[in-house]
Amino acid sequence: MGHFTSSTAYTISPRTEVLQLWQKVISEDAISCPFLAHGILAFSALHLASLRPSQREKYEQRCRRHQNEAIPEYRRVIQDIRPGIAGPVFAMASLVVLLGLATISDNALPKEDTLSRHRPDLTDVKALFTIVRGLEAVLKHGTAVWDTITNSCYRVAMTGHTAISGQVLELPVDVQLRYQQLMTDCLDSLLAREKSAKLACLDAIESLQGIHSELLFLVSENGSEEVELEPAYVVKWLALVPSEFVTLLQEENTAALIILGDFFALFQLLENMWFLKNVSTNALNAIQEVINPRGLVWLKGSEKQRMKLARQNLVIS
Questions:
Q1: Are the CB atoms for 279 and 101 separated by under 8 Å?
Q2: GO molecular-function annotation terms (predicted)?
Q3: What are the helix (H) ranges across 163-223?
């Protein structure tokens, strides 16, 4: 726990108020909440594995052991959440999202059956939708759980991920063209006779374009200073897309996979976070392995987006 409060907590968010939440409130709540304590120790162990290559196997084993202790109890609790435990549940849900992202990174745990290095695949990528949308269901707006969290010190971790009116930036012409081509040429060629699927994909693209604009606003707003981005700025897209789009992804629909590729390209702006190391590249490689050859030319566009953002990241890091 000491490593978490002195080091790992600093890697979760660059915002001081969120750091203090994890260091003080959440760490103290974990004392009386075993599943949260094990969740914190699992994430901390994975962090140590990334920092100490010579001892990586030892820390990976600790991470897996703490995960195995945390998840069953956490799943039981979320079946009937009491407002009094809403904060710890929210904290654990956040850790589950971060650990889910890590499974697509270069810091993923090895596969249990072989102990060989884990190579992220599309199953890992699609699992993120289940995790994030599950969190959304747990924290449904207007419920007693939602009210409890938003009226507590946990509120700081739930805000600040959506731009207020006017906090967007007009995208560069070539990026605008990319989104326009996705909405027209790409969908027209791949979903010509599937109106419902096309509408779901249009919705997903429009949401992604909005998030892209917000991110560029944050980058431009900070000028030469370090930009305080965090995963929630991007991950929220997983909760915004319509259910039909998620179904299309589960079916490995070509158009949906292409849009997913552009989503993961945005993670290039957060590559400085250890649990997101090479997430963008790994996800695109996983998509390429399963996508219909008809979609490869469009997926190359996702890779170009990633490369542009990589250059942008060199400027802001």
A1: yes
A2: DNA-binding transcription activator activity, RNA polymerase II-specific
A3: 173-181, 187-190, 195-222
Amino acid identity of 20? Q
Query: 179: closest CA among 259, 253, 247?
Result: 259
Give me the chain's average pLDDT, please.
Answer: 87
Give the C-alpha separation, 306 to 281, whole Å: 8
Q: How many angstroms separate the most distant Cα atoms in the chain? A: 57
pTM: 0.89
Residue 56 near residue 107, CB atoms below 8 Å: no
* Residue ranges, the chain, pLDDT below 70: 112-118, 138, 159-169, 220-228, 311-317
pLDDT in tens, 228-253: 678 988 999 999 999 999 999 999 99
- CA–CA distance, 41 with 35 (Å, rounded to integer): 10
- How many residues in total does the chain contain? 317
